[in-house]
Amino acid sequence: MVTAETHELVKKGEMLPLMEEFYTIQGEGYHKGTAAYFIRIGGCDVGCHWCDVKESWNAEVHPPTLTSQIVENAIKYSDTVVVTGGEPLTWDMTKLTNELKEKGASVHIETSGAYPLTGKWDWICLSPKKLKLPTPEVYRNANELKVIVYNKNDFEFAEEQADKVPDDCILYLQPEWSKRDKMIPQIVDYVMQNPKWKVSLQTHKYLNIP
């Protein structure tokens, strides 16, 4: 049972509901192929039906962990740290990112952008979802837009989202894993006709690594 004191520490970002942490290769988007330490924070109410980490949704099943301990674990392995979820912006990311950057880490986030932007980030990968759209601030600060393509209607959604990010934001279309055989040919054709977009694949799954 989480005490009132622990709840208050989580609210302040001094503790975070840690689902898992691991050192691996970034499999997606601009930094694919880069060794990085991943911090997966529990808690998400965006509710994508095709989410491949639904076990992250309920923050209450993931133990509140001291943010300072999470930082110490990360810097033992890599100076590139990726914060993901769940939806990490559910929580205040200020303390986590400040301490990582004080240790010299380059700090990235993978987010739906559905909550206010907290923390200091070297790279923001925005993966917007139709059920709960990003906040204006996240749109403005996105370095990378990654739209998951589940069906042909997602191309229209992708264009709508591209209109809201900066001109220098890198645009990716990524097939939803279970639909990859059907959607990859459509994505390839779309990118060839609309070369402002790039193709992103979940290469870590092809490599059979976490």
Automatic annotation (TrEMBL):
Species of provenance: Spongiivirga citrea
Residue intervals of the Radical SAM core domain: 31-210
Subunit structure: Homodimer.
Top-level taxon: Bacteria
HAMAP family in alphabetical order: QueE
Protein known as: 7-carboxy-7-deazaguanine synthase
Pathway(s) the chain acts in: Purine metabolism; 7-cyano-7-deazaguanine biosynthesis
Residues that hold substrate according to the record: 25-27, 40, 84, 210
Enzyme class: lyase
